[in-house]
Amino acid sequence: MLAAVGLAPSILGATFRDAEKLFLAGEYEDCASMAAAEIEQGIRFEPWRHVKAKAEMALGRYAEARETVEEGITSYPTSIEMRLLAHQVFRFNDKPQAAQTQLQQVANIVRTRLRRRASPDEQLAMGQFLLEQGADARQVLELCYDPVTKAFPSYVDGYLATARLALDKYDNRLAASTLQAVPETSRNHPDYHYLLARTFLSDNPERANEALDKALEINPRHTDSLLIVAEKLIDGEQYDEAHQTLAEVLKINPKHPQALAFEAVLANLEGEPDRERAQRKAALDSWSQNPEVDYTIGAKLSDKYRFAEGAAYQRRALAMDSSYLPARVQLAQDLLRLGDEAEGWQLIQQVFETDGYNVVAHNLVTLHDSLDDYRVLQNDSFRVRMPQHEAAIYGQRVLELLDEAKRVLCEKYEVELSGPVVVDIFANKNDFAVRTFGIPGADGFLGVCFGNVITANSPSALGADKSNWEAVLWHEFCHVVTLQKSHNKMPRWLSEGMSVYEELERDGGWGQTMNPTYRQFILDGQMAPLSELSSMFLAPESPMQLQFAYFESAMAVEYIVENYGVDSLKQMLDDLARGDSINETLVRHVAPLGKLDAEFRDYLLEQANQLGAKLDWEEATLPASADSEMIAQWLEDHPDNFYGLVRQAQALVQEEDWPAALEVAQRLRELIPEYTGAGNAYAVLARAYRELHDTAAEREALEAWAQRDGDAMDAYLRLIELGRTAEDWQLVAANARRMLAVDPLTPIPHRHLAEAAEQQGEPSAAIAAYRALLQFDTVNPVNAHYRLAQLLRDEGHTDQARREVLLALQDAPRFLDAHRLLLELAEADTTSADEEPPTSPDEPAGEDDPE
Predict the structure, then answer these.
(1) pLDDT tens-digit profile of 399-412?
(2) How far is CA 442 from the centre of its chain?
(3) CATH number belonging to the domain at 379-609, selected among 2.70.180.10, 1.10.287.90, 2.60.120.380, 1.10.390.10
(4) CATH entry 1.25.40.10 includes domain 612-709
(5) CA-CA 20 to 30 A from 598: which of 269, 627, 768, 848?
(6) Alpha-carbon distance 280 to 282, whole Å?
(7) What is the pTM of this model?
């Protein structure tokens, strides 16, 4: 802390403020020289030693800083601030015993000052000391930091101390609210903007960038801010730019441990293990037991899905300092993501017991307790954990889909899975976010794969914004295959692109295809070169921009497959597994980067121009209240305008002019058959044909829509109705399954699937559908139990059939057909050997009963 609160004569205070301004502006050399000159003159003013030592530390002049603090503790032996600064300086001079001695001296000083009124600097210093000693962070806030911000509302250091503590405990909300309370006149400190950037990094990249820009405007040599910039570049796989930014940091401080740790990360990612070891060694040169070095390397490798390597680094950090909580939290999360749940949960429980304020630890411990109510379904390849109720409804379908994905994708990419894949499906978005990221708030994520562990939101977690859960699991399992084949060493664009591509290979209604928004992005030049595609995921300006990153990545994979074959993808994954860079593998198996980028750009432009090639794409200049007549007049001058045709079709539906709506929708379908968004031709055609009683045409339009859209629930439901009317049970079953792939937690598709399966002579499917149907409280159980009893009887499961008919009679004791069936079962001579003993009618059907 650099501020001098009422300690110096005015003339010296003015001089010190000049030094303070130099420090905050990054002029560390001039700051240190000014402070040295004042100290040499014998000025008795402790903050000169503080600012001098901090400037020397910022420059990596650790030996000079040591001399400064040694003189400082001699001159001010009872200063808590001086001794805490000395503690830090001695550690960076690899003097652990001397550093520890300073903490012991601080403890003695604090005991003698318990009744004395402390200055703001002293209060903040005491809080820092208590945290070093493992004190409860909330008590430090309450006893040390909060009183400072309340009593001295213009003193920025109090707010900064609180924000740092909150961020260290992953409490971004407290950090943000604390920084927002800083008066405008006190926001000229680079640390203020740096800490503000940290609060926004995960959920508001644009504001984070603004804050970083402001911090670096105030102090272009602010190393903490530069390190965030470097880290973001690493995240975006912009490794050359990351090296350049780290070079800026190392020019300021050639010994900066975190900068050297990031250089070790880059060496790892670039396949240079010798350089990785050398950079790590350099990072530990000044402080050989600094746990932050291995923690930083490991955490960033884990961000790159190198969880095994990341966990190994965390163990090295903890070997240096077993009390270093960031490494313990990160190791616990790494282990959970590797599927090593026993040790992972145990470790996070230990962190929580040590530090109850740690938000990640608290969230994970709370989640672990709630998982006791989940059900585990497993076979040789998968271990699926999901809520009990949901497991009973569609858990078996989850296993069947995953088995299919394994059979198709492992064979295609020649991958042998290493052990069972863990799949956790959560009915609560926050539970999903905590299991995945440690904190709530993972909006926009449907599922995440860590290599051998998949986490996903269930349909119930998404509320009204349903998404095709089968497509999500197929996508995430493709990540399992590609990450295992590449040993988790593939760039994000290739990983996401292959998963979206394989969604489309499995079902044309899944994945992402060209649409008007993506077309405009491409024509506006908002796409990235193929060799830089991962940068699209770094800081998207909007959720739609992020979706476009997935789409463009899938287009890149499609381009490679169409022009160079799927074997080129497999060869690329093999090379990546050996440690080759993505650009090396692209050159080796696809094309030189310049040629590749140019050809892919042309490919994207061609695909964009092919979407509605005959359409006029000018924005329609029509008022929101325009009726069909007004739109028709506008269309006279723009007859093939996409936006005008969509508006016209919607207006005619609103006005119930069905012949005119048909004409416009047919034209729209002819011009852009791929479009399935709002106001698409298929929806309008189906509605118009229905109103005009042309069932065959309605059905054709609905089927065309359903084939192109994996979330078209309205189309699926209407096709079921048409199928039942026509007794086309194959159509009913197909669309019931489509509905179940989007929302299995409504009884409607189960009821229709049960009926269709019976009609088609598929008893196993019918039995499963009736059992799922009975999980819904809104369903009348009598008929379901009775129909299930009949099916079980026909399949030879006499005891199970008897139980179901008794359950039907329990609710409807005068149900004559059920009585007849019960008598028939009672007369049966034998019971299947694999059946359970009979149960009372009061006993509910068990979830684990064999089918």
Answers:
(1) 999 999 999 999 99
(2) 6
(3) 1.10.390.10
(4) yes
(5) 269
(6) 5
(7) 0.87
